[in-house]
Amino acid sequence: MIHKIKICLISSHGGHLRELLDVTKNVVGDKYYVTHKTLHTTDRLRIYPHYFVLDPHNSLLKYIINTFQSIYHILKEKPKVVISTGSGIAVPSILISKYALNSKIIFIESAANVITPSKTALFVYKYSDLFLIQWPSLKKTFPKAICIGLV
């Protein structure tokens, strides 16, 4: 019997989720998604295993709630790998997975960030096992990143 690796795919809704779905469509594993609940994400993820967490967007209280929601799905699913396109919604899940389960972290900086990196990317870079950028101009900020071009 082949054991599929558990993979957590997490991003905010909108363009980040679209990029995440596109880049991971051929990733093989026991995947589940984590994002913010909207009409769009509820419809888009209806055929996939998923969890909804609060989008903290610069609110300490919302980050605390997101952290407890993240603890729940991380301990229930026990992902070996976390793949994220950001934004801040992913930070608690990334840190909990990294330090509670020693999960591998793959972060993909959004294609929208051509010259100036996102705050999430700046924070997550040091915790990532694989850090991917889509624009060569970001190599100055993220010297260990791999430039994969536009996905």
Radius of gyration: 14 Å
How would you state the average pLDDT, rounded?
94
Overall shape: globular
Query: Which structural class do you get from the secondary structure elements?
Result: alpha/beta
Give descriptors for this structure.
alpha/beta; 2 domains; 5 helices
Q: How would you summarize this macromolecular structure in one to three sentences?
A:
33% of the residues lie in helices and 21% in strands. By secondary structure, the chain is an alpha/beta fold.
Structure, described:
With 151 residues, this protein is α/β, with parallel strands linked by helices. It folds into 2 domains: 26-78 and 94-103, no CATH class; 104-151, no CATH class. Helices cover 33% and strands 21% of the residues. It has helices at residues 15-23, 39-44, 60-77, 91-101, 119-124, and strands at 6-11, 30-35, 50-52, 81-86, 104-108, 130-133, 146-147. A 7-stranded parallel sheet has the order 3-2-1-4-5-6-7. Strand 5, helix 5 (119-124) and strand 6 form a beta-alpha-beta unit. The longest helix is centred in the middle third of the chain and has 18 residues, at 60-77. The mean pLDDT is 94.
List the helices and strands and how they pair.
Layout: E1 6-11, H1 15-23, E2 30-35, H2 39-44, E3 50-52, H3 60-77, E4 81-86, H4 91-101, E5 104-108, H5 119-124, E6 130-133, E7 146-147
Parallel strand pairs: 1-2, 1-4, 2-3, 4-5, 5-6, 6-7
Helix pairs in contact: 3-4
